Description:
Layout: H1 2-19, E1 29-36, E2 41-49, E3 56-61, E4 64-66, E5 83-88, E6 91-99, H2 102-109, E7 115-122, E8 128-135, E9 140-146, E10 149-156, E11 162-168, E12 171-176, E13 183-189
Parallel strand pairs: 1-8
Antiparallel strand pairs: 1-2, 2-6, 3-4, 3-7, 5-6, 7-8, 9-10, 10-13, 11-12
Amino acid sequence: MNKWIIILVVIIALGTYFAWPKTHLKEPVVMSVQFDEVAKTLAVSYIVEQDDSTYVMEIAHDTKGFYPPRSNGNGDGETDYTQVLAKQNGYELREDIVELTKDQLEYFLSLDGRSVPVDISFEAYSPIETILVLLLKDEGVEVTKQDEALLYTYTAPEDITIDSIGHYDNVATISFEEAVFPLALKICRCPHSRAV
């Protein structure tokens, strides 16, 4: 009898070890925030613990707020477009989408620069400052996983300039200077590196 109790305790301990997060997250980890001109959306990808029921409440730039649609009648909880992109070791990679009106789309297209500072608000957490990357028509980013690294392939249809490649708060930033098009630029975001 004692043998079966020990086996049961070991199974429960192993199950808890593999299913429960190894580190408690103090707040959601924002992986990317993108404006997509063609889809007319803002997309926020973030990591939370699986049992955390927080979702994107607002994306704010200057004095303007942008809100994911919710048909549940509440200003919190899962949005109409919440997706769980991956689950692993007690964490979830989620994505929430904000649909933009014509005026909101024009607002983002009128901004100077291709990356702008924004604040992402989640229920029960302080706003998180990060950068919104603007993807314009005929531009795209494809992300593939290779071992423990994420590879980003950026494609643009016209001449732009490569000036610098940098990294800020989980978002890669790229400026361009003379290149031959169409251009495919591969960027490796390794898990233990803060530089791209």
